[in-house]
């Protein structure tokens, strides 16, 4: 079956430093890849998605490139803010017709210190 | 926009008790999901439903039942609560096959079993 593996957390950074959260995936299909973010007390919400290999997605200063050869989708941000403190989930949706499921990674807790 | 409402927000049960969690959505989405969230294990799919009266098992369906009586509602039953169990259950909905496909999540029901 499908699987997603992320950087183990928690990750603690100072404001203004750079962030990388690694994400690797396994699937037999050509997936759509997602990053979700979950703030305290809320459900996860879509940060961005990338449906095609070798394309980049971005939102709110975060970005990730769909690397089909390396089966990776690492999340990066050049300069984090305290408001970025949250849990980040990498996820995939397989490309088989009628596939309505997302498979999530284990989540990475990010804390940004002012 | 729409909203997903989960009730109750907090649920305290006794070992062996049957417990029901409810979810309502007003997006008019076809597909609804129940995920379990545990620290360090990410989001694991319990059940999903692609239309009214449809049920599909996820990876974690053992010990749970689900019911999709109408398009807007999806309930989950813990058939026998396990002692010291603690988890957050997240309901989501989606519509696939269009350019803005994504999951929309509720804020969760936090379960504690005494």
Name the chain pair whose interface involves the most residues: A-B, 22 and 26 residues
Strand content of chain B: over 45%
Cα-atom radius of gyration of chain A: 14 Å
Structural class of chain A: mainly beta
- Estimated radius of gyration of chain B: 14 Å
Low-confidence stretches of chain B: none
- Largest beta-sheet characterization of chain A: 6 strands, mixed
How would a crystallographer describe the biggest sheet of chain B?
A: 7 strands, mixed
Taking pLDDT < 50 over at least 5 consecutive residues as the criterion, the unreliable ranges of chain A are none
Looking at how many chains there are and whether they match, the oligomeric state comes to heterodimer
Number of helices of chain B: 0
Element-by-element helix/strand order of chain A: EEEEEEEEEEEE
Description of the structure:
Chain A has 114 residues and is an all-beta fold. Helix content of chain A is 0%, strand content 48%. Chain A is built from no helices and twelve strands. In chain A, strands 2, 5, 6, 10, 11 and 12 form a six-stranded mixed β-sheet that branches. In chain A, β7 and β8 form a beta hairpin. Chain A is globular. Chain A starts with a strand and ends with a strand. The model of chain A has no long low-confidence stretch (mean pLDDT 93). In chain B, strands 2, 4, 5, 6, 9, 10 and 11 form a seven-stranded mixed β-sheet that branches. A four-stranded antiparallel β-sheet of chain B has the order 1-3-8-7, with no helix packed on it. Chain B is globular. At the A-B interface, β5, β6 and β11 of A face β4, β5, β9 and β10 of B.
């Amino acid at each position: 079956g499908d699987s997603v593996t992320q950087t183990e957390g928690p990750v603690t950074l100072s404001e203004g430093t750079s962030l990388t959260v690694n994400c690797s995936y396994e699937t037999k299909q050509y997936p759509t890849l997602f990053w979700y973010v979950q703030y305290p007390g809320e459900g996860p919400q879509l940060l961005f998605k990338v449906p095609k290999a070798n394309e980049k997605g971005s939102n709110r200063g975060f970005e990730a490139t769909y690397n089909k050869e390396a089966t990776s989708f690492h999340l990066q941000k050049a300069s984090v803010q305290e408001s970025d403190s949250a849990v980040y989930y990498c996820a995939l949706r397989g490309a088989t017709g009628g596939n309505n499921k997302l498979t999530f990674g284990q989540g990475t807790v990010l804390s940004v210190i002012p | 926009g729409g909203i997903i409402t989960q009730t109750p927000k907090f649920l305290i049960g006794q070992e062996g008790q049957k417990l029901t969690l409810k979810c309502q959505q007003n997006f008019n989405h076809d597909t609804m999901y129940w995920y379990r969230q545990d620290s360090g294990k990410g989001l694991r799919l319990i059940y999903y439903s692609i239309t009214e009266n449809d049920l599909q098992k996820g990876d974690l369906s053992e010990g749970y039942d689900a019911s999709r009586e109408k398009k807007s509602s999806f309930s989950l039953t813990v058939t026998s609560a396990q002692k010291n169990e603690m988890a957050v259950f997240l309901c989501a909905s989606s519509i696939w096959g269009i350019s803005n496909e994504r999951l929309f999540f509720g804020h969760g029901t936090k379960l504690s079993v005494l």
